[in-house]
Amino acid sequence: MTASALSRPGERERVSTKIGQIDWRLTALLCVVSGTGALMLYSVAGGSWSPWAAKHLIRFGMCLALMLALSMINIRYWFALAYPIYGMALFMLALVETPLGYTALGATRWLDLGFIRLQPSEIMKIGVVLALARWYHGASAKEASFHWKLIFPVGIIGLPFLLVAHQPDLGSAMLIGMTGAAIMFVAGLSWRIILPLIVAAAVLVPPYVMFGMHDYQRHRVLTFLNPEADMSDKGYQIVQSKIAMGSGGPLGRGFGLGSQSQLEFLPERQTDFIFAAFAEEFGFVGTFTLLACYAAIILISLRIASLSHSHFGRLAASGVTATFALYVLINGAMVMGLAPVVGVPMPLLSYGGTVMLTVMIGFGLVMATRVHRYAELPKGHGLI
Amino acid sequence: MSGEPSIFFADVNERQGSFLRRTFVLGGVSALGITALIGRLGQLQVVQAQEYATLSSQNQFNFRMVPPPRGLIKDRNGVVIAGNRPSFRVLVVRDETKDLDQTLDLLGRLLPDTLERRRAIIRDVNAASKFNPVPVKSDLTWEEFAKVNQYANELPGVMVDMNEARYYPFGGSFAHVIGYVAKVSDRDVKAIRDKGEQPPALLFNPSFRIGRQGVEKALDLSLRGEPGGNRVEVDARGRVVAEDIGGSRPAVPGKEVILTLDADVQNRALEVFGDESGACVVMDVRNGDILCMMSAPSFDPNLFVGGVPTKTYRALADYERKPLLDKTLNGTFPPGSTFKPTTALALLEAGVDPNLTVFCSGSYRTGNRTQRCWGRHGTQNMHDAIKNSCDVYFYAMCNRAGVDNIRKAGLALGFEHEFDIGVGNQRKGLLPSTEWKARTFPRDPVWHPGETTSVAIGQGAITVNALQLAVMTSRLANGKKQLQPRLIKSIGGVEQPSGAEAPDLPFDPAHVEYVRQGMIAVANDRSGTAYRQSQLGLGDIQMAGKTGTAQVRNYGTGSRKSEIWALKDHNLFVAFAPVDAPRYAVAIIVEHGGKGGATAGAPRAREVMRTVLLKDPDMRARIERPLPPEPTGAAIVEDGVVGAAPEPDVVATPQAPRAAPTTTSGPRPYLSEPRR
């Protein structure tokens, strides 16, 4: 934010000025992480650009362009479109329940529009962030803290949560729920609500695991608690993942030399368990550096959120950051045997277009928040 | 957006302040989470790195068991009678097939018989771990092997390999004595576990076969060998990526077992039995080596190697002539008149004068019972009684020795005894005694003299097996030693003890000689019971013998004419040759032969004996040499010249100083019989 950018009217709306406002450190970190992902995908394919590494790079290139393009859009428009985007995502989630929904692997998560197969739960991850930010933008500190109106944000989170959990896609549902909870938290939810909720969760989660979950979900949780009991499938994955990371040692086994990933002992090595493959080949030095990059991305994004002059911008940026941090922490904990195996990939490192698109659109929003941090937004509870 | 602002400035400030504090907490929590992950990584990658490196190499490297080739079983001349042959197999790896059903459909087009066993195959494949190849069909023909190879690309998860399979080149000839191998069953594993031992991993190798019968079973541990291991680098599917030569060790083949059997004799024995059922045992009377131990009818042991189909098995098991039963060791028969030499020996030992005569009128009365002889022999001394197999003589004389003395003589000749020949599962038969009577029939514990008469002629409760008959004949022919039969010549090059290292017979040599003269007369006196059938036609080599006909029903009811096979008489014949310096003894049992020991037994013994003698180089020399003026004397010289008799001191030394069998107290000159 140069002095000249502030001095002349209309200066801030110039594209050249806006480009100068893009956080290049953040962009560079995203590139580093995605590039590392491409390197690992090249390695686990046995030293080949196909089938994953090349596609990953191309996708990232396109997503990066999209992110930069989105960062040029004034958050006034994000603000205006917050509820419509959320509504559309909700509508599509509901459509998944109709015969239009496409079923694969026992779960109905996709919407088959003929020319494209969409995963509405991914759109909803952005939608929830926008809708909550939009609602809190018009809410007073009191309403955000301890007020009957809190049923609105709860509803904004709860509806998609239930729809996604019903698919069933517990991973995405948890992500949406936890992102929403994070936004409610930073928006100023009173400790008088938070603490009893934590206590209630501690009491209610174990019975839910035993009686409320689908068999495969319960199986995952129980397997997490004792992976050696089920060496065939889920337990096998955790055990092999730990072996891969542990055998990497402090310095790693070298690029392309990890026996666990090269000999395919490591399951899902191109998606959910790519971090383990990375850990095997690059060792503790590599994982420390990579996690430091992730931490830097999270902290820079939160800093961007805190600099915004609008409450909407603050909450949207921190919401996206929370989603990203949850991805990293859940996947990291999962591959290290600290959390049950849920289908949550490591963002930007794992192969997979949908998550990358979601994450990069999210960073487009973060970047737009930074570029337009002085943007004036209407006050109050406007609907649009 | 009209009207008053709904949020006031102070409120906005408070909201922002709260947000900044909370964002700080959020950032702190995230950083804490990532720090925790780094901590966990430190634990895994720095503290426990060594441990996980070990686990990783256990994943990466695998010991692939290399099953050892099973030890060969050879006959005395080095002819392989149980060997190994290459066998092509088709295997299916579940994890590599896209769709097991579809793969089996395609495979069924190439190998139609896999369709019939489809359900069993699917069960086997699903039972195995998904990376492990499961054999689907063994013993492919070359054409089948080529076809599967040709379509290999269209059959993911199907592979072909070569291993070794047990092979019995002589088929049924040795089926009972060497037995066969078969797949390891759950019962085998359980039997080992019940003994409190851990079954070796080799047992679970799909190509491993365990010995089921005979020598294969008895010497299974020696024949197995030691499995080797190939250290290979594998991927998660168990596919071999690379081989680590330095970390591998070769398999140790099983020990080679050499038997005393002679394949030619054994084959000839099976041949001469034709469609008859029975057993033939041939022994070397000098050292106890078993040259032939054959049970007829037989079966093809090769059927059992790959797993015998139930219907085929039933066809073998349900046949009344019992091809699966080993009639040499496991079938017991009444010896009939072949027991008479034993009775005669018991009489001599009991002090009976062999020149005492008995008049045979065709029947004999004891108490209120009349027992019949098979003929009317007139006045008979002991020699005549053996030669003519006169029952009345033995009826009249037997109680002078008594049943317990007859039993004693029988035990000394090898009856009711289980011989340690290396294979188990023998039935030792029964020699009755007063003690046995008291034990078995508590209601009538007293032995009646009338019961001795049955035992004396080998009928009634007395039962023997074919090996015991051969041992009896060998001991009589040897005349000196209580010869032990030997079947296993060597295991892995280690020679097994000879059967000649045995105590002496507890009989007066003169008595044994007397009985032998009786047996010589059976086959060489024109009036002997088996004269016609016992002419070897090998120069001056002669055979001695004893016929036997054992009634299945009551003695003398004419059962030999029965139309029902199972009710016909058993026919037996025991023989040894040459009479002047015995080398070989033959025992033949024709189960339900229904003819007579001379008709059904003796010709078979003769044929087998001819085969044995013609294989003996000394005997060949004796046959080929021009007829000497003094045949028997020359035979002894011959022995000395060639020096081929391995244990000359065992060769019937008592009769060695004897000039010739013809010159002793024999009543007839049978050597003068002109030859054709």
Automatic annotation (TrEMBL), chain A:
Peptidoglycan polymerase that is essential for cell wall elongation. Pathway: Cell wall biogenesis; peptidoglycan biosynthesis. This is Peptidoglycan glycosyltransferase MrdB. The gene is rodA. The lineage of its organism: Bacteria, Pseudomonadati, Pseudomonadota, Alphaproteobacteria, Caulobacterales. The keyword Transit peptide does not apply. It is a multi-pass membrane protein. It comes from Brevundimonas intermedia. Its EC number is 2.4.99.28. Keywords: Cell inner membrane, Cell membrane, Cell shape, Cell wall biogenesis/degradation, Glycosyltransferase, Membrane, Peptidoglycan synthesis, Transferase, Transmembrane, Transmembrane helix. One of its GO terms (cellular component) is cell division site.
Automatic annotation (TrEMBL), chain B:
Its EC number is 3.4.16.4. Residues 652-664 have a biased composition (Low complexity). The gene is mrdA. It is an enzyme of class 3 (hydrolase). GO terms for biological process: cell wall organization; peptidoglycan biosynthetic process; proteolysis; regulation of cell shape. InterPro entries: Beta-lactam/transpept, Beta-lactam/transpept-like, PBP_dimer, PBP_dimer_sf, PCN-bd_Tpept, Penicillin-binding_protein_2. It comes from Brevundimonas intermedia. Residues 66-243 form the Penicillin-binding protein dimerisation domain. This is Penicillin-binding protein 2.
